[in-house]
Design goal:
heterodimer; A: alpha/beta; two-stranded antiparallel ribbon; B: alpha/beta; seven-stranded parallel beta sheet; five-stranded parallel beta sheet; 28% strand
């Protein structure tokens, strides 16, 4: 069984994004970039499926600038077998990403796609669902557990108020939520090994997919800052202030 | 232009996220219809018919719609879009599950989690965990939008729209519902609660989390929340998670206990009306957004707070 894992290079989750003074976007120059945390969870899950003997090959794919090859090397160091970089300097919207992935999937024919539920830059939470729709494959989003057997995946999903379990016929799309697993750190020997693994690079333009943006970014601004608060000395002071000053008790 | 709002409900009750989404929809157009999809949810449709500004309610019922299967929701909504220029869905885990499918099928962008309507094709949405606000203008003929409900006021009751039953789509072939385990709680729902008490990693264990956070929440009639760190460590269920990757809340009062205030947590609660932080580290970033900060170990501060609340008649 072949598992495909799309990964995205994003601002490191510990770094606070700063808006550019000209309001054209977020300043990413000289900012630490990493693999999107949910993509890491997806890679970990795919690698575990291979370690359990359920999957035979794990292919990582990224769509992005040349530096996204570093993100793919991380996926390889975590245990992916090979990687594909679809190179572009354009910033693609989720629908365009889903179309590019669908084109690659047409050629790679994986049995399962495991991907993060959301990227922490655009915060759209849409690509997996869109990809499932374009391929007409079943979807199970926000997964906290995946069991694969007999051409089906049984997926436990995090929903409002609890957990839902779905069974999907493969091939299918699963998007990873936070508690699916705890991703491993790549060991130094594995980082070295990853350098020798196959990383194929192709240009986005060569795929002939329509990736034109549908949304025009008018401006990007900073949200209003909260006015600074006060420190209180005791719990009794706090209750008094909440009652009389804030009026919320 | 005509706008369709997809109701958020549990088949028995309409959630107020729906009324809030109707408010957003009315800023696009005066012609707003409500879709109630589920099973055994006639009462929800009747409640929806009372929302001021709703022109008519469409009711579709089937087992799969009741289970909230994304494929079924998409199959139901896409044909309806022949009559609508925009579809708005509350950005709950359910809405996020199916709305992008509608967009993909219509070959349009999804405009995710809008917090402001500028005009019928221009919207503001948070990106980068709410550290930036992006104003986007859509060039698509049909708009598929999810709405962050906490920022819109609920549309009032007072309408009397008619309810029209429409057929449900066929059962999806490749997705099968197995079961659903919902936590039964006497506490208010996190996303709609007036007061939220949240605990962080400082709790140290699930037992301590329950012992410290839950009694305080119950005393205040509050919902319980948790930071991602506390959820990651297994102290609280994921459903409690407040933040960029969990729930976004904006209660009247948010009390953060033993939470340092990581970027991704602040993204989920910084629009609360009043924020209280209790943390023994005076330099914790949570104090930068807190209206009232108490620098103290929660182990003594929470019992003191419970006592002070009792003394104040709570």
């Amino acid at each position: 069984m072949k598992v495909l894992v799309p990964v995205k290079r994003v601002i490191d989750y510990n770094v606070k994004a700063r808006v550019k003074p000209d309001q054209t976007g977020v300043d990413l120059a000289n900012v630490k970039m990493s693999m999107n945390p949910f993509c890491e969870i997806a890679v970990e899950e795919a690698v575990r499926l291979r370690e359990k003997g359920v999957a035979t090959e794990v292919v990582a794919i990224s769509i992005g600038p040349p530096q996204a090859s570093e993100t793919l090397r991380t996926a390889l160091a975590m245990g992916a077998d090979r990687a594909i970089l679809v190179q572009t300097t354009e910033d693609l919207e989720p629908l365009a990403v889903a179309k590019v992935l669908a084109a690659i999937i047409g050629r790679e024919s994986p049995d399962l796609v495991v991907m993060g539920k959301q990227a922490i830059d655009g915060d759209n939470n849409a690509t997996g669902q869109m990809l499932a729709t374009l391929l007409d494959w079943p979807q199970a989003t926000f997964a906290s557990a995946i069991e694969v057997a007999g051409g089906k995946a049984k997926v436990t999903r995090e929903v409002d108020g609890g957990l839902q379990t779905l069974e999907i016929d493969l091939p299918g799309i699963v998007t990873a939520d936070l508690r699916l697993n705890e991703p491993r750190y790549a060991s130094l020997p594995n980082i070295m090994k990853a350098k020798k693994k196959e990383l194929a690079i192709e240009e986005l333009a060569s795929l002939g997919v329509d990736t034109a943006p549908r949304l025009k970014v008018v401006k990007v601004t900073e949200p209003a800052k909260r006015a600074g608060g006060v420190k209180v000395e005791t719990a009794a002071d706090l209750v008094a202030k909440l009652k009389t000053e804030a009026g919320v008790l | 232009m005509a706008v369709l709002v997809i109701a958020d409900h549990d088949n028995a009750h309409l959630r107020d996220t729906t009324e809030k989404t109707v408010t957003a929809a009315l800023q696009l157009s005066a012609d707003v219809d409500l879709l109630v999809a589920g099973q055994g949810c006639k009462a929800v449709a009747d409640a929806g018919a009372k929302i001021t500004g709703v022109r008519k309610v469409l009711l579709a019922e089937s087992a799969e719609l009741g289970e909230g299967l994304a494929e079924s929701m998409e199959a139901l909504v896409v044909p309806l879009m022949a009559d609508y220029d925009a579809v708005l869905t509350p950005a709950t885990s359910q809405g996020k599950n199916f709305s992008p499918r509608i967009a993909a099928r219509l070959d349009v962008a999804q405009i995710s989690e809008i917090v402001e309507v500028i005009d019928a094709s221009t919207f503001v949405r948070p990106i980068y965990a709410g550290n930036a606000l992006e104003t986007v203008q859509s060039s698509d003929a049909k708009k598929v939008i999810t709405v962050r409900p906490t920022v819109f006021k609920a549309a009032a009751d007072g309408g009397s729209a008619k309810v029209e039953t429409i057929p449900a789509p066929a059962k999806p072939a490749k997705t099968h519902f197995v079961d659903q385990k919902l936590v039964k709680s006497a506490r208010p729902e996190l996303s709609g609660a007036k007061i939220v008490v949240s605990g962080g990693r400082a709790m140290g264990s699930a037992e301590e989390f329950q012992k410290v956070i839950e009694p305080l929440a119950d005393k205040l009639g509050a919902a319980v929340g948790a930071s991602r760190a506390a959820v990651d460590a297994g102290y609280a269920p994921n459903d409690y998670q407040v933040g960029q990757t969990g729930k976004v809340v904006a209660p009247e009062l948010y009390i953060a206990i033993g939470i340092s205030g990581a970027i991704q947590h602040l993204a989920g609660m910084k629009d609360s009306k009043v924020i209280v932080a209790i943390n023994k580290d005076a330099d914790a970033p949570i104090f930068q957004v807190a209206d009232y900060g108490l620098v103290a170990d929660y182990k003594t501060a929470v019992p003191d707070l419970m006592a002070a609340l009792t003394a104040a008649g709570k």
